[in-house]
Amino acid sequence: MSTSGTLSPGILRLACIDSEAPPLFHLAGAGPRRGYEPAAAALVASVLGLRVEWEFMAWDDMLPAVRDHRVDAVWCGQGIIPERQAVVDFTEPYAVFDETVLVRKGDPARAPEDLAGYKVAAIEGSANMRLAVTFPGAEPVAFTGEDVFGDMLAALRRGEVDAMVDDDVVTVPLGEDPAYDVAFTVRTGNRWGIGVAKDNPFLLAGLNAALATVVSDGRLEKVWAAWMPHLPYPLGERVSA
């Protein structure tokens, strides 16, 4: 372990899936990774004098990879929920989102009660799944894997599921897609944090200090506005994890 609390000196090795989920992130290509999360991660790392390296893996392997010190942290759409807090420790939030239900184009569902009898996709063990199981009469369908977001969208498009739940940042823009309609949004205030191994408090403290710096000086808000101008910035005041 380096003096910064990372596995390698000067490098912050982060776990994430490789998926097309704009504006959060795009599929990795030949150039720098693009999207709000990569931009925010690079900003926070720069405050610590670190360079980000991404390790792509299946969704359900990310938290074990952090716990087992195969990577330094997970920065990949991790809502701060008790099931995840049992495995890793989380920083203060770097984002807060609500949750949106997506259906196929022309589907009339516009409220939770309209989903009775629907197969509703959500990521296994996620905050989205915690919401999906509350819809009366709906059948939650858990997804995981290398490209879990893309897999859910494909299943919805093919009619293998009738709806899917994910955070508004990635689902609301899909309402403009000819294949999908936004059914409704639930104001859940789902807080996202960076997951760090429980036995690495030094890195956790460093990331929290760097986050506090870029929130207070307005730099994180500028990154948010660049990638997500359609969503109000939620961190004008400090949000406790």
Write the layout of secondary structure elements.
Blueprint: E1 11-16, H1 36-47, E2 51-56, H2 62-67, E3 73-74, H3 82-85, E4 89-90, E5 95-104, E6 119-123, H4 127-132, E7 139-143, H5 148-158, E8 163-167, H6 168-171, E9 180-192, E10 195-196, H7 201-216, H8 219-227
Parallel strand pairs: 1-2, 1-3, 6-7, 6-8
Antiparallel strand pairs: 3-10, 4-10, 5-8, 5-9
Helix pairs in contact: 1-7, 1-8
* Overall radius of gyration: 18 Å
The strand line-up of the biggest sheet is 2-1-3-10-4
Q: What is the total tally of β strands? A: 10
Average pLDDT figure: 95
Strand content: 15-25%
Which sheet architecture does the biggest sheet show? 5 strands, mixed
Task: Please give the share of residues in helix.
Answer: 25-40%
What structural category characterises the helix and strand content? alpha/beta
Run of helices and strands: EHEHEHEEEHEHEHEEHH
N-C termini distance: 26 Å
Spatial shape: globular
Describe the structure.
It is a single chain. This protein is an alpha/beta fold and 241 residues long. The chain is 28% helix and 23% strand. Helix 1 links the parallel strand 1 and strand 2. The protein is globular and about 55 Å long. The chain starts with 10 loop residues before the first strand and ends in a 14-residue tail after the last helix.
Short description:
By secondary structure, the protein is of the alpha/beta class.
Q: Key terms for this structure?
A:
five-stranded mixed beta sheet; globular; 241 residues; alpha/beta; single chain; 10 strands
